[in-house]
Amino acid sequence: MAKVPAVKLNDGNKIPQLGLGVWQVPDEQASSSVKEALAAGYRSVDTAAIYGNEAGVGTGLRAAGVARKDLFVTTKLWNDRHGYDDAHKAMDESLEKLGLAYVDLYLIHWPVAGSAKFLDAWRAMVEMKEDGRARSIGVSNFTQANLERLMEASKVVPAVNQIELHPGFAQRELRAFHAKHGIATESWSPLAQGNITKEKVILDLAKKYGKSPAQVTLRWHLQSDLIVIPKSVTPARIRENIDVFDFELSVDDMAAIDGIKESPRLGPDPAQFGK
Q: What span, in angstroms and rounded, lies between the C-alpha atoms of 57 and 204?
């Protein structure tokens, strides 16, 4: 069974560097996917209120029989719950669906373009960290401008910013800002929704290392000091995605992947989304 390294966050907590994402996984499928992942060695699961599968994730966590202290569970606050009171209620709803007393990481899912209400949500989340409902708190899809605004209003710096990130859309400027302020970068859509398998560089390296294009890409994330949460509901693919700790890309191979032509983002633009 693979042993996943941990990344130390700015609040002293640790997050597994590779976890299971469950975006677009139906609630009834989430349980089996989570159970399969935990059997394969995963200990981190990333869900969100808007995914509609927190209950299924919770069922899978309980069915796997892994001690709670060994799990790292992330969920997220949706855009319509950014008010201070709403954020507190949303957290309690998520905990009830998950069947947990606390989550390891709670994220603001999107900043919501044109709104500053995320500041009210953050104030509530700081209290959630203080009362133990969230061990760590962070954000998702925040731009540098969003982060600067949040840090001007609060002494608590987000532990994580989860953003779209993959070869060809490497978000280097935002990552540099994160590094400067001690914010861990977590990649969503790390395989570019499968588009990465079309890249000749990735295909050539997959042949060189005897690995799949997905495994080579995930290795690039890991060696780039990124946290990564590939999504799959296929048992074989779930196991494949964590089988990435028995090889290492060379400096030249990393540079070759870094040199993949820049491509447009696949998901919404945070500067526009949620208006």
A: 36
74, pLDDT greater than 80: yes
Let me know if residue 98 belongs to a domain.
yes
- Please check if 109 is assigned to a binding site: yes
Place of tokens 């606390």: 102
Does residue 45 fall inside a structural domain? yes
Token readout for 6 is 């941990």
Classify residue 90: in a domain, yes or no. yes
Confidence bin at 73 (pLDDT 50/70/90): very high
The domain that holds 16 is classified in CATH as: 3.20.20.100
CB 267 within 8 A of CB 162: no
Is 222 in contact with 17 (CB distance < 8 Å)? yes
Rounded (10°) angle between helices 118-131 and 84-98 = 50
The answer to whether position 123 is within a domain reads yes
Enclosing domain of residue 181: 6-193+222-234
As for how many domains the chain has, the answer is: 1
Distances (CA, A) of 219 to 58, 104, 227: 28, 24, 11
Q: pLDDT tens-digit profile of 207-259?
A: 999 999 999 999 999 999 999 999 999 999 999 999 999 999 999 999 999 99
Structure tokens at 27: 């609630």
Name the DSSP letter for residue 261: P
Per-residue burial over 132-156, b if 16 or more Cβ lie within 10 Å, else e, is: ebbbbbbbbbbbeebbebbeeeeeb
Structure tokens belonging to residue 100: 């947990």
- The one catalytic residue in 51, 84, 102, 106 is 51
Active site residue 51: yes
Written as six digits, the tokens of 165 are: 């990130």
Checking DSSP bridges between strand 103-108 and strand 72-77, what pairing results, if any? Answer: parallel
**Residue indicated by tokens 């290392």:** 209
Q: What is the pLDDT of residue 91?
A: 98
